[in-house]
Amino acid sequence: xxxxxxxxxxxxxxxxxxVDTIAKQFTQTRKSLNAIIQLLKNxxxxxxxHGNGPQVGSALLRTEMTADKLMYLPLGICVADxxxxxxxxxxxxxxxxxxxxxxxxxxVTLVTQVVVSKDDPSITDPSKFIGPALPEEDARRxxxxxxxxxxxxxxxxxxxxxxxxEPIEIVNREAIRHLVENGxxxxxxxxxxxxxxxxxxxxxEGMDAVIDKDRASALMAxxxxxxxxxxxxxxxxxxxxxxxxxxVWLDHMTIREAERYxxxxxxxGGSMGPKIExxxxxxxxxxxxVVITDxxxxxxxxxxxxxxxxxxx
Length: 313
Ligand code: ADP
Ligand code: MG
What we know:
By secondary structure, the chain is α/β, with parallel strands linked by helices. It has two domains: 2-117 and 167-311, Acetylglutamate kinase-like (Carbamate kinase), CATH 3.40.1160.10; 127-162, no CATH class. It is 39% helix and 24% strand. It has ten helices and 17 strands. An eight-stranded mixed sheet has the order 3-9-2-1-12-16-17-15, with helices on both faces. The longest helix is centred in the N-terminal third of the chain and has 26 residues, at 75-100. The two termini are 24 Å apart. Bound molecules: adenosine-5'-diphosphate and magnesium ion.
């Protein structure tokens, strides 16, 4: 059996354009598992990661709103909490589905620490927007109270910014590898994992930052020797001139082509850009193949020409 890391996008768990509830998240998660089952039926053992944008946004807002009455939860803790909670949802949904499908495999969620450099440039100049867009005065007041850094956002709003450092090492990669070698389905690096760094004594310390889930997924895929990285998002393929009249869907890209299109600005920073950068890094570090598509496409078919395939050459 081959191993693939499968990075689930935000829309795999949170229904788009609806008021979010846990019941709806469970429904959406169960639907998304069709793609995971498809991989298992095609002899691919998935290691599952997932985004946590809306969930960590809610966790932060909740702790800010209750800061007068309850202890305030720093961002690193909110990331760990959502990793556990979302992992539980996916784990249990998958356990029930495997039982229905008569697939006899264990599912386990690991709250994953991911090492970053304490000198990462994003720490002194954070630029990852997080939480709601606010009027300037409101943003400044909260920044002072909670120790946020804020930056202008859009025309006349301000928003909290946090560091989004480059992931360097998955702390429990050996444990993940052993579980995978024994055929277990692992859910790990959810929300990009909890960012940690080594202090001057070599101890791990938490950091209030977020790691891009596609970058963390690509690193995890390399560190456990996965052959393929599936990035499941809200589009069936990657496009050139995305959203414009001359849009073209891409079936295949080499590393060189991907780098050229990146340089030409086809893949924006907050969405497709980090996916393509993560894909290129995974391939350069020994990965065989990256597939970018949506859950519906993978649920319906499985072949070598699914979505946009990226290979070394
Ligand atoms: P996720 O939650 O899966 O990480 P994102 O919203 O961060 O998803 O990024 C995926 C989105 O990027 C797509 O749904 C699409 O709207 C957008 N996108 C931007 N540029 C492109 C492109 N060149 N090709 C395809 N999709 C693109
Ligand atoms: Mg994203």
